[in-house]
Amino acid sequence: QVQLVESGGGLVQPGESLRLSCVASGITFNKRVMGWFRQAPGKEREFVAAIEETSTDYTDSVKGRFVISRENAKNTVYLQMTRLQPEDMAEYYCAASFEFFATAWRDKRSYEYWGQGTRVAVSS
């Protein structure tokens, strides 16, 4: 069975931090680009960040604030989010690309598997 399980979401005040985790099982984790997407109410799901092995990509709005990383030995991808703002409020999803996929990281169609999501709320 394939599972991507996110955790770490919650409610924080503006300027605070959260670390999201996504543990994958049942997939060839090391052969896949791992990504984070988010979806706010009434909006389309949008790309946040992705990581291949060490190469990373971020959407402009999170550059300098979010860091994506992975630990292959744990089949886990992380999203360290700092200086959170209300515009970051969304359901955050981790995703695993098709095997050995190395282009179009920002396109959700590049991803084969998705987690169930974890909620991030930012409010004063």
Short description:
By secondary structure, this protein is an all-beta fold. The chain contains no helices and 11 strands.
Beta content comes to over 45%
Helix content: under 10%
Please report the distance between the alpha carbons of the first and last residues.
40 Å
Order of helices and strands: EEEEEEEEEEE
Number of strands: 11
Shape: globular
Radius of gyration: 13 Å
The helix/strand class is mainly beta
The number of distinct helices, counting runs of at least 4 residues, comes to: 0
Mean pLDDT: 96
Task: Detail the poorly predicted runs.
Answer: none
Largest sheet: 7 strands, mixed
Q: Any overview of this molecule?
A:
With 124 residues, the protein is an all-beta fold. It is 0% helix and 48% strand. The protein has no helices and 11 strands. It has strands at residues 3-7, 10-12, 18-25, 34-39, 46-51, 56-58, 66-71, 76-81, 90-97, 111-114, 118-122. The strands form 2 sheets. Strands 2, 4, 5, 6, 9, 10 and 11 form a 7-stranded mixed β-sheet that branches. A hairpin with a 4-residue loop joins strand 5 and strand 6.
Chain-wise SSE layout:
Blueprint: E1 3-7, E2 10-12, E3 18-25, E4 34-39, E5 46-51, E6 56-58, E7 66-71, E8 76-81, E9 90-97, E10 111-114, E11 118-122
Parallel strand pairs: 2-11
Antiparallel strand pairs: 1-3, 3-8, 4-5, 4-9, 5-6, 7-8, 9-10, 9-11
What attributes characterize this protein structure?
single chain, 124 residues, mainly beta, 7-stranded mixed β-sheet, 4-stranded antiparallel β-sheet
